[in-house]
């Protein structure tokens, strides 16, 4: 007996889509077509338009955002090995994208989605949202300010000599840092503060609780957050790193409570911003 497969439908009225948004949408579809199918990337099945609307038919994922699921996990147990298993999946996807010379340019926790409601330790994870993705033919071939505060690479913010695929490795390094500590490395009181911390490239290594982390874990995150993009670890090198190949330990990480506090602060800040915007 064949099982039923569900798809998500994204519908947009053309009258509500600005010219630059239309260009971004069609570039996103072009990139998604090049990407095709991968176990850890959200699949775009079809793009359709008529005289009034655009329709995107996407793989349906019911598991929610990765960090929310980590916070909600029963038992409070989250180990280096659990973090490694998550990184194996997303690095597999990023290595695949970079092999096709595609830069995502907006990697952040909100774009890591779970396929279903399986326990987070067993769940399959997929990278979503290719709205800023583009082809990167050379090390400095990309221009334009994009990405999210706290995750965007410093070379993007400098807007000097262009940038390339290494910007994704910086963002993934930030995400790994959070997976290991529950604390963002470039988390300021405001977006402006976060961006300023990123441009300086200095993050607080003491919050790592170094005694709780294996040397391979510290080595990987340090090499992913290398300030010079030319010296930063590539996706292929990271995917082959010993920490992702079995050396992660079973040591418990103090992640859930830290994540819970940080996520609560972020939601509160967004709520305040939304309230201010609606009262103007």
TrEMBL record:
Domain Protein kinase stretches: 1-244
Keyword Flavoprotein included in the entry's annotation: no
Gene Ontology molecular-function annotations: ATP binding; protein kinase activity
UniProt keyword Oxidoreductase, yes or no: no
Keywords: ATP-binding, Nucleotide-binding
Pfam families: Pkinase
Cross-referenced PANTHER family: SERINE/THREONINE-PROTEIN KINASE (PTHR24347)
Official protein name in the record: Protein kinase domain-containing protein
Organism: Guillardia theta (strain CCMP2712)
């Amino acid at each position: 007996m064949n099982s039923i497969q569900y798809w998500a439908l994204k519908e947009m009225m053309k009258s509500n889509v600005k010219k630059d948004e239309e260009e971004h949408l069609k570039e996103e579809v072009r990139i998604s077509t090049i990407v095709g199918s991968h176990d850890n990337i959200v699949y775009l099945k079809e793009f359709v338009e008529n005289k009034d609307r655009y329709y995107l038919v996407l793989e349906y994922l019911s598991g929610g955002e990765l960090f929310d699921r980590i916070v909600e996990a029963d038992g409070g147990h989250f180990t280096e090995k659990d973090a490694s298993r998550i990184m194996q999946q997303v690095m597999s996807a990023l290595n695949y994208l970079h092999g096709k010379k595609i830069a995502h340019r907006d990697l952040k926790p909100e774009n890591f989605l779970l396929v279903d409601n399986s326990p987070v330790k067993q769940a399959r994870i997929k990278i979503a949202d290719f709205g800023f993705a583009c082809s990167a033919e050379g090390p400095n071939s990309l221009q334009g300010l994009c990405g999210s505060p706290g995750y965007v690479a410093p070379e993007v913010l400098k807007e000097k000599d262009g940038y390339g695929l290494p910007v994704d490795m910086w963002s993934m390094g930030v995400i790994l840092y959070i997976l290991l500590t529950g604390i963002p490395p470039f988390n300021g009181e405001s977006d402006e503060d976060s961006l300023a911390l990123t441009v300086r490239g200095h993050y607080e290594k003491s919050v790592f609780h170094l005694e709780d982390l294996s040397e391979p874990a510290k080595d990987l995150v340090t090499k992913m957050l290398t300030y010079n993009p030319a010296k930063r670890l590539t996706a292929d090198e990271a995917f082959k790193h010993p920490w992702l190949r079995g050396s992660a330990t079973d040591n418990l990480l103090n992640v859930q409570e830290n994540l819970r506090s940080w996520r609560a602060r972020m939601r509160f800040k967004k709520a305040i911003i939304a309230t201010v915007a609606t009262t103007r």
